[in-house]
Automatic annotation (TrEMBL):
The protein's name: DoxX family protein
Membrane topology: Multi-pass membrane protein
Transmembrane segments: 32-51, 63-84, 90-111, 123-142
Subcellular locations according to the entry: Membrane
Principal location class: membrane
GO cellular component term, pick one: membrane
Keywords, ordered alphabetically: Membrane, Transmembrane, Transmembrane helix
Length: 155
């Protein structure tokens, strides 16, 4: 839930700053700034909240802390990639693949009612988390992967 708040708040703030400055608003660029903030927040959280995140992985997996730290680094790399025009499309494609790849950990955590990130609510949490995951994937697609239909391709 916190990542969604970071995403939406950063997007709103980016749009507001553009409007206050009387500049044209590029919603895709504001969306990428918001994605960058969200992934940075999530990535740093993997280091601050590693103990809770490890619980979201099945105990039979080896190197659970290392997986958490590694995925945190990946998310921080996405945060940078969304701000670098030359890596934008690749970052978006990889971020979508990543969001799909990590979703089973949310299923595991919800089914096992892991008390972290809303998963303590049990499988009912998936009624929120699943649409949110689809929303995030769509946000990444629209703001960074989808080709712009006009000749003014902008970052």
């Amino acid at each position: 839930m916190a990542v969604l708040i970071v995403l939406l708040a950063t997007f709103a703030l980016s749009v507001l700053i553009k409007r206050i400055r009387s500049q044209p608003v590029n919603y895709r660029a504001c969306g990428r700034i918001a994605l960058s903030a969200m992934f940075l927040f999530a990535g740093i959280s993997h280091f601050w909240l590693a103990d809770g995140m490890v619980k979201m992985l099945p105990e039979f997996l080896p190197f659970r802390y290392e997986i958490i730290y590694f995925t945190g680094l990946i998310e921080i790399a996405f945060a940078l990639g969304f701000l670098l025009p030359q890596y934008l499309r690749l970052t978006g494609i990889l971020a979508i693949a990543f969001l799909i790849a990590i979703f089973p950990s949310n299923i595991y955590a919800a089914v096992n009612a892991v008390d972290f990130g809303g998963n303590g609510a049990g499988p009912a949490y998936l009624l929120f988390r699943t649409p949110m995951q689809v929303f995030l994937i769509g946000w990444v697609w629209i703001s960074s992967v989808k080709e712009v239909n006009n000749s003014k391709k902008s970052i």
